[in-house]
Amino acid sequence: MRVLSIVHADSDPPGLFEGVASDLDHHHEEWRVDLAPEPPARLDSFGAVGVFGGYMDPCDDDRLGWLRAEKDMLRSLVGRVPAIGICLGAQLLAEAAGGGIHPAEHPEIGWSDIEILPAASSDPLFADLSDERTVFEWHSWTFDLPAGAVPLARSSGGLQAYRLDPTTWGIQFHAEVTADKLAEWLDHAATDE
Predict the structure, then answer these.
(1) Which of 35, 57, 83, 145 is the most exposed place for a label (fewest CB within 10 A)?
(2) DSSP code of residue 16
(3) Contact 31, 7 (CB under 8 A)
(4) Which long-range contacts (CB under 8 A, 24 or more apart) does 41-44 make?
(5) Which is nearest to 100 in space by CA: 143, 68, 43, 59?
(6) Which residues are 6's β-sheet partners?
(7) 138 CB contacts (<8 Å, ≥6 apart)?
(8) What is the model's pTM?
């Protein structure tokens, strides 16, 4: 299967997802949406798409013209190609499906406990998870649940995961981050202080 990772910055690569695709002998392609205006092929030629994080806010359309074009593309993707959005990607998919995006009441940075909600017990991705999980988060924006979407997990800070349709998910936390990338993020944050 061909798998596409939509990447917004060097700082937020597909990480573990790229490794899983390789382990499953899938052909993985990466599209740096901020550097190239068009994907490497028609989106419906991919068996799955991942939409990853980035340093930008999901409402930076005026500052980053490519972000508006990406949102238009994601609107056409939802429901047609299996997809997962992570952090910024989850926010963009939620907005593409009609949900609101806005600054979080409090940024969530670091390790957090999330509650797996009852609807997750019948979800293909979440069914085998226990009632509570510890995840790594790094975001200051969040999303509202789009109409018709199913909430799958939450934290004290708000919604953490949803399913839009049978094959589209969004997760606010960073399931893709590798130990090396996490160390890089922490080193970068320490030098910015």
Answers:
(1) 35
(2) H
(3) yes
(4) 41/2, 41/4, 43/4, 43/73, 43/76, 43/77, 43/80, 43/81, 44/80, 44/81
(5) 143
(6) 31, 51
(7) 53, 87, 108, 109, 110, 174, 185
(8) 0.94
